[in-house]
Amino acid sequence: MSKFYRIGENLNVVTKVYGQAMKERNPKPLQELALKEAEKKVDYIDINIGPARKGGEELMEWIVKIIQEVVPDIPLALDSSNIAAIEAGLKVHKGKAIINSIMARPERMDGMMPLVRKYDAYMIGLLWGPEGMPRDEHERGMLTAEILAKAAEYNIANEDIWFDPIIAPLNIQQNQLMADLEYMKMLQDMAPGALSTCGLSNASNGVPDELRPIINRTYVVMIQRYGMASAIVDAFDDELWDLVDGKKPEVNKVIFDIMDGKSVDIPSMSKELQAYAKTARVIMGQVLFSDSWLEI
Amino acid sequence: MAFEIPKQIYSGAIKTVSIGKGDKAITLGGETSYPFYVFEGVMPNKPRVAMEVWDKNPGEDWAAPALEPVKDVAGDPVAWAQKCVKEFGAEAVALILVSTDPNGDNASPEAAAATAKKVAEAIDVPLIVYGTSNMEKDAEVLKAVAEACDGFNLIIGPVQDKNYKQIGAAALAYKHTIVANSPIDVNLAKQLNILLGQLGVKDSQILVDPTTGGLGYGLEYSYSVMERDRMAALTQEDDKLQLPIFNYLGQEVWKVKECKQTNAEAPQLGDQTKRGILMEAITAVDLLLAGGDLLVMRHPEAVKMTKSIIQELAG
């Protein structure tokens, strides 16, 4: 199993306490969170300042500085739709940062790809096209080709691009989760050497909070199987760490068996394995989702 | 090699639900194939048509062609229900408790329960009692109705995720069947059935109302949700969806502009009466093809056409 990179998602402007700290330029809560993420050995820390239309540049520059002050060895993923804010962050960032993200739309690619070379950064290639969300794996493939063509123009190597196929919520778009799996099977043929990442938590969006982790964990095992190299995830979900590090082979086996259509005897399993098995069946579309899927 | 017609393999079946009492009790469900695919499975209980009766005179709320056949009895739910059974061949009656709407007459649960009981006593076919989709008020009203009509095996609804506990408990206590209603979403439909099961309501006491759109106004959404419901039930053994489907379509069809516009207002659309009847009958047939087991309809002519099509297709 090759190394799985973890990008901690927790430092996000939509979280009340961190949003407030950003607004007030209060470094302490943000630095404390970064230190805690570092303890969990994340590979990158995502810094999500949202659209940040006003004052985005100054905010991003400030955050990059105060975070790298306490965790100098962990590079950051700079997350904003404000291009100037991203560049302001890149200017002061030490090490190789990730630009999160560049959509497969001409104006976004032309506006942001020059930054990749200029600052020797990675980029996340988000498969969101001029017409929005791709409907299946084939449209994802087409958008990948668009990104690759533009990247060639700007002299960006495949190895510097993390493709994000976009994860949709299980409870309303189960078929999109299948499309992401199919897409991952094709990615290395289209873009040899390219990396990949995904906003994993989106898989469980709209599901009651206490039930979300099991969906995220099951799905990460499934998509890692087809080469997904990383995910933007909750830094504090230890069980998810164990799974992507291959420390729970019995869980992987059950999930793989279900993916392969083998018959599995769910009632004979431990409670923990049952939860993974039931979730895998729902994700694969073998059982229709409902909020009580673990209880039946 | 001779050509063989490909056949769908089914691993599940729709469960049966019995409503009403005595000779005119009805059993719904039991299908082992997609609707009317009698060359692949059986449809032991053909779909049924109930007719809509309001607990108050609908007056101008109803398009004139829909009111015309019942205008002599509108305002008297007992006489209206009897007319539907005797003259129009209704196989069940759906009493809609419009007067309980808190944004309208706001009639009391007791008054509504008394009306429901009178109607139940006056007819021999099964009685459906439907509220106004106001979650809190329906919970009070349907509880009172369930108690007053103990022993009639009514069908009460709509039961939704916010009031399933109150109404479900009343249905259990007084042995009625309930209609579980969810907003055009197969996952939410399944979830509500699971919750009802956890409450102790048996599958033999549940019909599913997927929320019905009329022709030109969302019918296609209802249609595809019903299709998915049946696929999960019959080919994926999803036992929480193996339940008969209920469609309240009369109201959805007749409330739209095309049914309400008179000949004087829209001469280019042809005859209003004929148009409304056809729109209702076409909606009904589409819902039957998607899996409807019990339809609540309004116009006697549309009912007649629908029943004859059921007869032709199901034999």
Low-confidence stretches of chain A: none
How do the SSEs of chain B run, as a string of H and E?
A: EEEHHEHEHEHEHEHEHHHEH
User: From N to C, what is the helix and strand string of chain A?
Assistant: EHHEHEHEHEHEHEHEHHH
- Average pLDDT across residues of chain B? 96
Summed over residues and divided by their number, the pLDDT of chain A gives a mean of: 96
Rg value of chain B: 19 Å
Overall helicity of chain B: 40-55%
Main pleated sheet of chain B: 8 strands, parallel
**Number of helical segments with 4 or more residues of chain A:** 11
Which shape of chain A, going by the Cα principal axes?
Answer: globular
CATH topology of chain B: TIM Barrel
The CATH architecture designation of chain A is Alpha-Beta Barrel
Instruction: From the 3D structure, determine the CATH topology of chain A.
Output: TIM Barrel
Strand percentage of chain B, roughly? Answer: 15-25%
What characteristics describe this protein?
heterodimer, A: 296 residues, alpha/beta, TIM Barrel, 8-stranded parallel β-sheet, 11 helices, 12% strand, globular, B: 315 residues, two-stranded antiparallel sheet
